[in-house]
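Help! Submission page says 'invalid entity' but I think these are all valid:
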Amino acid sequence: MWVGGGNAADPMKKKLVVIGNGMAPGRALEKLFELAPDAYEVTIFNAEPRVNYDRIMLSPLLTGEKTFEQIVIHGDGWYVKHGVTLYKGATVTAIDREAKTVTSARGVTVPYDKLMIATGSLPIIIPVPGHKLAGVLTYRDLDDVQAMLIAAKSRGSAVVIGGGLLGLEAAVGLKEQGMDVTVLHLAPTLMERQLDTPAGHLLQKAIEARGIRVITTANTKAILGEKKVEAVVLEDGTRLPADLVVMAVGIKPNAGLAKEAGIDVGRGIKVDATMRTSDPDIYAVGECAEVGAQVFGLVAPLYEMASVIAAQLAGDENATFTPSAVATKLKVTGIQLFSAGDFADGKDREEIVLRDAARGVYKRLVLKDNRVIGAVMYGDVSDGAWFFDLLKKSADISEMRETLIFGPAFAGGSPLDPMAAVAALPDEAEICGCNGVCKGKITGAIGTLGLKTLDDVRSHTKASASCGSCTGLVEQLMKVTLGDAYNPAAVQPMCPCTHLGHDDVRRLIVAKALKSIPILMQALEWKTSCGCAKCRPALNYYLLSTWPGEYVDDSQSRFINERVHANIQKDGTYSVVPRMWGGMTSAKELRAIADVVEKFNIPAVKCTGGQRVDMLGVKKEDLPAVWADLNAAGMVSGAAYAKGLRTVKTCVGTDWCRFGTQDSTGLGIKIEKFMWGSWTPAKVKMAVSGCPRNCSEATCKDVGVICVDSGYDIHFAGAAGLDIKGTELLGHVETESEAIEAIVALTQLYREQGRYLERIYKWAKRVGLDTIRKQIMAEPDRRKALYDRFVFSQKFAQIDPWAERATGGKAAHEFAPMADLTIKEAAE
Amino acid sequence: MTATQAKWVDVGALDSVPVRGARVVKAASGCIAIFRTASEEAFAIEDRCPHKNGPLSQGIVHGTSVTCPLHNWVIDLETGKAQGADEGQAHTIPLKIEGGRIFLDLNRLSIEQAA
Ligand code: SRM
Ligand SMILES: Cc1cc2nc3c(=O)[nH]c(=O)nc-3n(C[C@H](O)[C@H](O)[C@H](O)COP(=O)(O)OP(=O)(O)OC[C@H]3O[C@@H](n4cnc5c(N)ncnc54)[C@H](O)[C@@H]3O)c2cc1C
Ligand code: SF4
Ligand code: FES
């Protein structure tokens, strides 16, 4: 099928043939007809059986917000008007560069003087089993959308593979059409090419809020079905029913035809800055073209290419294409998202982050040499264009740096001093949104009540007493009102990434139900995009202890010892310490240890100060095999590396000792078996001695028990490391089970209140020995509740990490090198 | 062999390195740590801290830095330089990513080794 131009062939005109009728050549021809209306006789071959339409608008077509007529760029009339011959549904199968002709699948051969290849891209299809089943689609053209709309009539389930721009737009469209949609994404966060991690997480929340399921780090293993798709299976075994599968995992330049014709092809068709290929009469434009090793997937640069090609064809030999930065927006109604430029962080770069948790806004600018080189914004993109302009112009922003992130509204006049801004606020200005506290109320209370600390202001005015996100503002206000009399350093921030102290963070995690590190960083307005080595392990612990069973541990936020469950040594090897419950061992255990030491050539074996055996100098790659052997003899990890329960030392007690008053060994073993695996703010060491002679040194431990005739004296808050300190008495109980309940409740209270890396003796000093004693010994309901919470959390904690890695295959990447080049190098 | 000519070798997929983490590549001249940051950049540095040879690959990765697991020096992944008051520099190795795979310049490894 074709629409023909009115003019009969004019021998004076040069012949321009175009292969592909997408957005890029469409724009090129528009420009060409403006510059040189009569220079060429144009013929277009288009594999798609239709005119040029706005491919970008396929998503609104899918949601039903637009019709096809509304997205057509050039109607049939346009081709007639410009004398263009358009072959629709005609795929070009060969270019003959000698004869200067192209030939279509149906055998039409047309000669050219100049040829423009604009074949666009092909969607990438992952060759998993089942990828050819009916019901597996890509997302590229009108036919795909029509097929999706038909499939959606079933109202069944759809699985979209790929959480990039296209995948998400497809997912939202299919959801809108009534399907039950799951998005699978290989990377840990959505749209990771365009967004940084915090923005990726916000996006995920917004997508999920629409009822779309999102599974990240999802590796598709196979697509199942008899005649048509029925399900998708992931590497981890998850099976998702599916009536429709959309693969939106990326595109690759469609350069096959050019390659067959002997034109230089890299990833795409190689062109120089004038858009000429290695054959001077042949140009390439659009997504199929590769310029200076770069290929493009957004229309802005393609349109620039189109202008260059048009100028070249019209005779302007100076027109050249230089790629510039591109900006991305997601076209999903209600989701505001913008990203441009390079937003990776780096040492020569600085970042400015603005988080407004209440409005769900995240903005990040990446600066280099006082110029904006990258911008990511989520929630409020109104300044996107302005930042993008600064970025493209590479404007020097040093003058307006202080207020840059607030956008053009603030940038106009003189730089704004935040203090001056607070001072300038009217008395009615609302400071604390949660509690509706205005500025006048706070300054008034400071004056009349003589308030001096943030806590005072909180308790008297309620400002910043709920979500805490206005804390910074309240503090500035105090500074303005009290001058140097106010010393905000009273609250020691966790680290330079935040102004909040440990206690504030712990409180807000509960108050705001924060359940992941990225969400926490957003809600609490972290000043860096991914924290530091100080705050990340602390946050990981706080989340883990607050939301047992719900929070997914972030191993990359753990110190190496806790990540690989062994202690790193000065030479990069590891030490391995299995549990010996209460310091008791057996021939079987000792034999297994001896065998392991010989089998793996372990250089040192030592009795530790904690009544067990340490094997030192194990190579990292041997760890899983060492553990497998120890596991086989019934031994589990001794957690000698953990901010968690370490050892429970015991003495021989009534079993053997002539002075023993109770079964100290048995009680120690019971405690260790009950409490192993738990994570705590810092390490916890315990001991049980059978009498006050105290051979297990219980009175310098975090928790110690001294058995006496009448029962058990429970001690706590001792230290024998950097500080030396005898324990304090917590209380006296008569039975073993009472002792265990009290010890467990005490540990749980510490788990809930302790600051990361704060040992029990420091925590007790901070909150008061008496408060702790009272809660554990005098309030049975509270004790029972604490006990129950500990027991619940143990459901998720008492899993031997060695077994998971030795035979369960967990974290396998830790123990094998990524590649071994020594062999390759030797061969060179 | 000229020093300027790069010889790229494929050492594995970017996805096989944990985000905010590292993996090790063994080479005759010593181990190389391959880092992957939260913003999906990759860096290659010799796996030896300029302080006391700590294995940098085992540290916590934040931004484009890693904190050494042995004594907490913070090393910049781009330059290999110690940050703050500490002084020292680990060798960096040219790296490129193509089609989701990581390539190292083998020639630069051998030169380092010869030096
Ligand atoms: C192996 C062992 C020494 C020995 O050969 O006996 C040992 C070895 C280490 N101790 Fe210890 N401590 C060992 C018993 C102790 C004891 C005695 C005890 O547990 O009864 C203490 C004093 C009691 C206490 O903790 O209060 C002790 C107080 C410390 C401290 C100081 C803690 C403090 O808060 O004051 C540190 C440093 C730290 O944790 O930050 C430490 C840190 C270390 C580290 C983990 C150093 C490090 O960070 O790499 C050593 C790891 C060696 C390894 O890879 O195994 N070790 N360390 C003992 C292992 C016990 C076990 O079986 O788990
Ligand atoms: C759903 C969707 C949403 C998008 N959203 C955005 C967005 O928001 N912003 C943005 O900037 N970009 C977006 N894009 C990308 C944008 O649409 C493309 O970059 C642009 O359309 C590419 O134009 P092109 O002319 O290079 O190729 P195409 O538009 O792909 O055109 C190539 C044409 O050539 C035809 N063809 C191929 N081989 C032959 C042959 N041998 N013979 C004849 N004809 C052939 C093909 O059938 C096709 O019609 C989106 C793309 C899709 C699919
Ligand atoms: S006392 Fe010091 S040197 Fe000895 S094991 Fe403990 S931390 Fe290491
Ligand atoms: S070896 Fe790295 S900090 Fe000491």
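Support: the input was valid. A stray whitespace character was the problem, and the output above is from the cleaned input. Chain B touches chain A through 49 residues (CB under 8 Å).
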